[in-house]
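Weekly structure sync, notes
Attendees: PL, DS, HV (note-taker this week)

Item 1: Kazal-like domain-containing protein
DS walked through the input record. Source organism listed as Macaca mulatta. Sequence as pasted into the shared doc:
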Amino acid sequence: MKSAKGIDNLAFVPSSPDILRRLSALPSEIEISAFSSDPQKENSQTQELQKPQEPQKSPEPSLPSAPPNVSEEQLRSLSLSEFEEGPCGWRNFHPQCLQRFNTPRGFLLHYCLLAVTQGIVVNGLVNISISTIEKRYEMKSSLTGLISSSYDISFCLLSLFVSFFGERGHKPRWLAFAAFMIGLGALVFSLPQFFSGKYKVGSLFKDTCVTASNSTSCTSSTSSLSNYLYVFILGQLLLGAGGTPLYTLGTAFLDDSVPTHKSSLYIGTGYAMSILGPAIGYVLGGQLLTMYIDAATDVTEDDPRWLGAWWIGFLLSWIFAWSLIIPFSCFPKHLPGNLMKNAVFMCLVLSTSSEALITTGFATFLPKFIENQFGLTSSFAATLGGAVLIPGAALGQILGGFLVSKFKMTCKNTMKFALFTSGVAFTLSFVFIYANCENEPFAGVSESYNGTGELGSLIAPCNANCNCLRSYYYPVCGDGVQYFSPCFAGCSNTVSHRKPKVYYNCSCIERKTEITSTAETLGFEAKAGKCETHCANLPIFLCIFFIIIIFTFMASTPITVSILRCVNHRQRSLALGIQFMFLRLLGTIPGPIIFGFTIDSTCILWDINDCGIKGACWIYDNIKMAHMLVAISVTCKVITMFFNGFAILLYRPPPPATDVSFHNE
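Item 1 (cont.): predicted structure, written out as tokens:
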């Protein structure tokens, strides 16, 4: 396909007997001596090839003359063995209806569909399921952070292998393999739901204060549920194996398939669609979390024991991913120094690695942060997190690619643009300090029991005879103070038919009058659920964080384009492979783990079962959590800006006669 400004990928040129015409795009490395034995003719041809070429004014590029000593059959053999171009299909089966997709736009469509599917699972469903998985399988945030990082571990281990061998292989069929692995990973990730048995909300007992009751015994010192950690890790490893060809070979194939001036627009579109996937994942997963994990139950969504149907989305993604295997397998093949010593390239790689650490950390734990900071339910926090993360990231990707393409930025100006956007995001990162919320009063944790008891202990004289269970967390709010459960609030009576459930005659809550009968009054002292937060910073936080996400992702496409422009065109897939290896090794693998350990360090109330084993965290120190996260963000942003600025200082533009797209710095 030809245009006025460049030549599209030969893989999408319809088959034609006019082999000489298509040889106009053969690699320049083919020696002239192979076509001529006349030294003078060779010198003249070499000098002619070394002349700077004028911009083409005609849509038809100049064509070389036929070599005198090579037959047309040899030319046909050389061309087809080099590119293996041809129609869309399999072997001798080439349906005419498929040929309309045998274009760069057709490939981009299927690339976007696979990127959306991958984003739904890896950056959408996995992230919003973290809190549910922690509670269902009794895991800490540090362990679920390891689950999140397992995808990037797989990506890191396979990126060089896939990019090296995939560059010489059939890239679209590598993407068919990617679709298979993404579907398989989604299926494996959902398997614990079917083998862990039905979710047990706990033994039946009264939630109010009753003496000589509610006693349980430790029946097992360990729980087998935490062993499903390895199944989740396996699912993520398979997903990583599928994501590796998608973002190394797929991106390089897009760059090879279109003219240089269109490359950033196509790559930006592909990356933007990879952001659409998490948007769908957050919305879909948020709705699925409003459905109970198993069959119908009497437990309501405001009950902390409620767990949503996190697993359904993974099964749907498995089916959709495998439906893309056949389309990718029908695309034709296309084939298009040491990179580690390329200082500009390595600086750009390190800047993206630092940025990836915080983006993956927030992508994993932002819903958890919103849930705890602003006292929201898991499903609503996941919806808000997706509403901020996904549109902001998609808009940033699109704007970055559009502005680079619109103003035809040079490689150096592209890096300057990325540095500017990172600087804006760095300045706004301090929003976590001013837009956080203090913890609401919690009896026994941050507030005493009306002046009795000790901080750090849920037991006080007012509930000492209630035999309350620490393993039963069902918060109630009374007189503006939150209590661990109605039992710890000393409540002896309840009205079960009211929603939310209400309690009265609570010995730990200061009351004005004695309530003797619910028929005489509608008064109550406590109601089920957390106390309503008095913090009004949520809209401010969401707005500013949305802007941060936009400017953060505006640098993504420009950096990728800069990497592709500062390496030899035959090393692009390998360059992207090295980039993603370092990005995973230094960014997305440690990111969720660091965030998980950091969030765990701010816990002030752990879930401890009857056997004394620590599980998930119930209450966090909001102020400490916000300060710790802003420290991580600012540190990583400084590292990003340093390496980006250093790359600008080191970069030297190519000579005017050199094609910038093939420039090797």
